[in-house]
Amino acid sequence: MERPEPELIRQSWRAVSRSPLEHGTVLFARLFDLEPDLLPLFQYNCRQFSSPEDCLSSPEFLDHIRKVMLVIDAAVTNVEDLSSLEEYLASLGRKHRAVGVKLSSFSTVGESLLYMLEKCLGPAFTPAMRAAWSQLYGAVVQAMSRGWDGE
Q1: What pLDDT sits at residue 150?
Q2: Tens of pLDDT, residues 108-144
Q3: Does domain 5-146 bear CATH number 1.10.490.10?
Q4: Could you tell me which of 59, 68, 66, 67 has the C-alpha nearest to residue 110?
Q5: How far is the C-alpha of 151 from the C-alpha of 142, rounded, in Å?
Q6: What is the pTM of this model?
Q7: Where do the domains of the chain lie?
């Protein structure tokens, strides 16, 4: 697989990483729009959220958003050597599988990520940037998918 264009990734992430919680919330709001069935997977103390808004404003979920943004941040930092994150990403995959996440849902997460970047960057989010991010995200999911292989 070709390596994504590091400079395009870093440059576009700089704007997003200044307010990770705000942008992460955009990503997850979009995710719940596209795949509402994911909402019940997020339960804290056995409490089901009544709506995406309810979920997106809970402290536990905001913590999850922060973690997701940190994972993306790590991928951006290691964009030229993603293999260094392989073990970490595979274990992240196993954690997601354990709570009932399907691997197929990660393509929706990818769409939501691109949506968030586009919302954040506007016209500065060029087709070349979109392609670079699609490549990077694809590589991250490929590494995480090892968590579903039952290795």
Answers
A1: 56
A2: 999 999 999 999 999 999 999 999 999 999 999 999 9
A3: yes
A4: 68
A5: 14
A6: 0.92
A7: 5-146
